[in-house]
Amino acid sequence: MNTEKLKKLQSQVRIGGKGTPRRKKKVVHATAATDDKKLQSSLKKLSVNTIPGIEEVNMIKDDGTVIHFNNPKAQASLAANTFAITGHGENKQIAEMLPGILSQLGPEGLNQLKRIASSVAVPKPIDEDDEVPNLVGNFDEASKQEAKEVITEEKEKEKEKEEKKPEAETKVADKKTD
């Protein structure tokens, strides 16, 4: 193989300057666990206290979405004016959170809710008829026919029961004589 071509290919592979290895270095990312440890140590320095009894936290954004935490761990340091909410957060729309979120909305939130409601246009039904439709058939005859069928079925069941009773009585009588 041509030495010039080989040197040209080798120079294209090199990442750094002269004297650096040709292979790329595998980048090791910091895991979330180390980030969490750093956060907890920073909060510990601020002397935060855990706030018990918080069942849910809703953070309302300007675009009408809500970050919803269910049973979060809430910590606060009033001296440092710091609040920390940790847990699993879900992004939801305000419409999904109704009606439970109404008590938590301030004046800005209510204005957002009004804007959302006005943007959702109610479709108008086409060609409204307020009149009662005309009857097509006689419904009384159909209901009378159904009633007759039910009565005949009940009579047939009673006849079957009466036919079975004498057989059962004779079996009982046979057992008593034995």
UniProtKB/TrEMBL annotation:
InterPro entries assigned: BTF3, NAC_A/B_dom_sf, Nas_poly-pep-assoc_cplx_dom
Domain NAC-A/B: 33-98
PROSITE patterns: NAC_AB (PS51151)
SMART domains, A to Z: NAC
One Pfam family this sequence matches: NAC
CDD domains the UniProt entry points to: NAC_BTF3
Basic and acidic residues composition bias: residue spans: 141-178
Domain of life of the native organism: Eukaryota
Region (Disordered): 1-33, 124-178
PANTHER family: TRANSCRIPTION FACTOR BTF3 FAMILY MEMBER
Family: Belongs to the NAC-beta family.
UniProt name for this protein: Transcription factor BTF3
